[in-house]
Amino acid sequence: MRLRHHSGRVVHLSHGTDLRPARDLPAVVEQLDAYAAAVRAGQDVDTLGVSLWLPPTLAAALAIDGRSRTRLRAELDARGLEVVTLSGVPYAEGGDEGPEAPDWSSPARLEYTLDLARILVDLLPDDAVRGAVSTIGIGRRDGWDDPKRKECSRILGRLSGGLAEVAWQTGRAVRVGFRPEPGAVLDGSASVAAAFARLDKERLGVCLDLAHLACTWEDPAAYLDRLGGAGISVIQARLAAALQAADPVAATGALRGYVSEGNPRPVTTPDGGYVPDLAQALREYPPGPWRVLCPVPWQSEPPAPLTATTEVSRAALRHLMSGAVPGTEYLDVEGAGTVELAELGLSPPQDARLSC
Description:
The protein is α/β, with parallel strands linked by helices and 356 residues long.
């Protein structure tokens, strides 16, 4: 879906499908029918944006098979769907990440991301001159030593060169947005600014999940201003809220309902505390209020006494859209909720509110 910023510029809104893996092209088409086309019908719009996740094996096959890319583009067009972003955050074929998933010190992450860039240029709408691929926040902070840093620097240089080659060959640009998150090399605004001091800011930027931003406990406007002051682009923003417990002890029963075996949900505290999983936090009880990286639908509330960080996310979104030009070109959303577009300086194709 294309939204109009008050400046007149277009902001693309896409519904994410990155939690629904597809291992081959027929499975992708089936996914489009099962999920994306149904969402488009519910929105009553002619064209709906979707952000696809293509696992590495499928991405590698599509990157070298122009006929399959042409077929995928035709299937999208036939369903009134358009793609301007691809998700390269999950890596495992089934979507469940483990410690073996490559980070940005591994050539495998580079190859996968460049495959996605090569695919995306053929999926973009005819009037689009560029798109974006999202990826992880460099790697896990634990164990990120000097050898990893040096190899990462070399690989990110190759990424910039590869993206430049894609643009030269096709006349269309693809930028890559790294997603800061708790426990990653990229997390708070200071770590992002420090890392990007050495990166190509023309082709590389940040894919900002607003639930992750809330888990830094930073003021959202200050976080975004720090990135802007460092010349770092917010290439994409994902509309999401995190789970919040003002008194974790009193909320123990409700919090236990969000423990997910095999799906770690990090917990952060205002003083910089970090626990990699909610189950562990419920054994150790770090002091202070908690924010849990567990997505909460945009306009819903978890069971009391838990709350959601929706207002933090809305404040970030308002800040992104309050300037003379939009602070990001791409918005991504999953789940249900309603976004008041007028207060953001955005206009939808028809309605004053966006149901998502």
